């Protein structure tokens, strides 16, 4: 095959366009993002089948927008192991799950700002859906049961050496780019020389997977909940966390344990009973350990090599940020790689992957996960119902209100990105924002019913989309001309400036392939120069005249 890079040079010797090392949700999501755009890729995944360890279960409304775009939403919802009414809602309890002090965790409060509802199912079920979707796309090849042993790059491309696990197969894959989606111990990250910054919380954690119908009966008092956090003073802000794998029998649990804990020297059943506040039947299926730490790579790109998901960032499984952040990496990186390979995206666009995604995850660690641990620790040190019940109750209610604010404040955005319209705020990309219906450059576009009767998310094109709300025909044509001149894929959606669409507060909205706003104008007829500059900024390179 012949692949075009962003300089237009032909590389006939490539086996594929992109080699993706790691076929978990992030790697498979990236492959689908590329494959749907006609970009050839090879996924190298060490496990022939998804591993049956329940993790990464909470899929947010935003993540489900990805599955909608990837043509896999319906199948994913059909694969769920818990009835829809359980959603991804949970609760936090003080002392024990069956104690008198608890509050609800309401992630569904931001549903109006997204096109799709949230979902919950084990990661291995998600992976199975993604594998089936990838198999339907001819541009994607998969090597299941293979692993990478080396990654080398030069000015023209990347060579990934792979070997069959337990077999004699050996291959060298030559591609324009390689992406490491191979987890926290990423070989791709190591071989490419990307360093990382770690914050160790000096906590040994246990992961338990167990069967218990008795626990399901005990927790029927909390209908519609899927996960449960327990706060105890001795844990100093760290949780004991229960999650449903299915409805009725299978659970997972993680929590701090004393240093040196092994499968043989600790009474895990008693630990679970104490957290719940009552005895119940337990049949353990898995007991594993991990260290609680944060990791953020110091860059997400090194030449022709990129990293995504846990290879780029990892953290304790608090708040369901991990798999959702990784899938957002895939959505962000995929269209930019495709733009480069098709010749209309430049180096500035590729660099924007790091410029957008890395500070967002740094903010996620700092402003949400670590802050949550610190806030809970301070609460536990200050308030004790055994000492002052009334003061504890008042503080507990205030804490619940603060949790609602956190749900609304988690709004990852790319304000200040080099490839979105500047707004003069001085703010850089961050996980802290606010959910609004107005169309803002650098922010996710909220859904809206259009005058045609469909939702804007049902009308989007695979490339850029120009939403024209009673804009002048000359302005719309100027956008079409600018896009055509540089081979930028553009779909124009024209609609009336009325109803929900009027909430966008703009007549022209240029939407990126990942559903983030690149540029807006409240003028019905901006100048051709303004339009050209807006498109140039969005793709990171000059528009041909």
Describe this structure in words.
The strands form six sheets. Strands 3, 4, 9, 10, 11, 12, 18 and 19 form an eight-stranded mixed beta sheet that branches. Strands 7-6-14-15-16-13-17-20 form an eight-stranded mixed beta sheet, with helices on both faces. A four-stranded mixed beta sheet has the order 24-23-25-26, covered by helices on one side. The protein has helices spanning 25-35, 61-69, 73-78, 123-135, 187-191, 213-218, 268-276, 322-341, 347-382, 389-409, 456-459, 473-485, 528-539, and strands at residues 3-4, 10-11, 16-21, 41-45, 58-59, 90-94, 102-105, 119-120, 140-144, 146-153, 158-164, 170-180, 196-211, 227-231, 240-244, 250-257, 283-297, 301-302, 305-307, 313-314, 410-413, 430-432, 464-469, 490-495, 508-511, 517-521. The chain is globular and about 70 Å long. It folds into three domains: 3-81 and 121-195 and 298-345, 3-Layer(bba) Sandwich (FAD/NAD(P)-binding domain), CATH 3.50.50; 83-119 and 197-296, D-Amino Acid Oxidase, Chain A, domain 2, CATH 3.30.9; 436-539, 3-Layer(aba) Sandwich (Glutaredoxin), CATH 3.40.30. It has 13 helices and 26 strands. It is 30% helix and 26% strand. With 545 residues, the protein is an alpha+beta fold. The protein starts with a strand and ends in a 6-residue tail after the last helix. The longest helix has 36 residues, at 347-382. InterPro entries: FAD-bd (IPR002938), FAD/NAD-bd_sf (IPR036188), RIFMO-like (IPR050641). Keywords: FAD, Flavoprotein. It comes from Hydrogenophaga laconesensis.
